[in-house]
Amino acid sequence: MSIVPSGRYVDGQALIYGSRSLSLIGGPSVGGLLVQVLTAPFAIVVDALSFLGSACQLAAIRPAEPPSSDGTEGVTVGLRWVLKSPIVRATLTGTAVINFFSWMFNALFMLYAVNRLRVHPGELGLVIGAGAFGAFVGTLLSRHLEERLGIGLVFVTGCLVFTAPLALVPLASPAHHLVVLAMLFAALFMSGFGVMALDVTGGAIFASVIPDAVRSRVSWAFQAINYGTRPARCFCCRRRRPGSAGRPETGHTGRLKIVRKPSGNW
Known about the structure:
The chain is mainly α. The protein is about 70% helix and about 0% strand. It contains nine helices and two strands. The protein has helices at about 10-40, 40-60, 75-85, 85-115, 120-150, 150-165, 170, 175-210, 215-235, and strands at about 250, 255. Strands 1-2 form a two-stranded antiparallel ribbon. α1 (about 10-40) packs antiparallel against α5. The termini are far apart.
């Protein structure tokens, strides 16, 4: 917020999340090449050096820091501010619910795609890459959409576009392989587009409404609750059935159930 003018918050967020989506597109390929050329231990060293390079670039930035609070309000001031702000409170409610169910979906997606839909690993890699490409497109178009539709409407639409296309995954039938691939590609591409529209505009909204003096503590409270839903979904996406063969099953509802082998191994 110290280096971006208030009128360009969406542009700033788009640059941040655009670099993230590009890393998701090119990162796995570059990582695989490094492992093949240098072997895994040296690839990890290169990865560590990349963090040092990032730290040096951040250290070169000399922003004019806004004055911060003296800390007399305590660490809970961020939580109280979230609860009192209708915009941030509503945003937290929506994103926490999305995080809970989307990460539950992520925990089961690969298993379901490979075992139920019979998608080959190479094909699955391309499908996942579609999500990263959709995210990149989302960052490119966020500013244009915000100017045309308004930042609030783009944020709400991003929440819907992020989640609704994922319904194509359980609707896909393994009997038609090409149709399955097309549906998975569309689901992850549109979902990636939606999550970037959500993140870019959400970050810009927070930059506009949260005071500088309490920004860090409000961010802490928001992230603690929002990301705190992720571990909880692990306990909700396991369904045990004694005596089964340890394979994923789907009933007539199309829901995936993870079952355990008699030996106790997942």
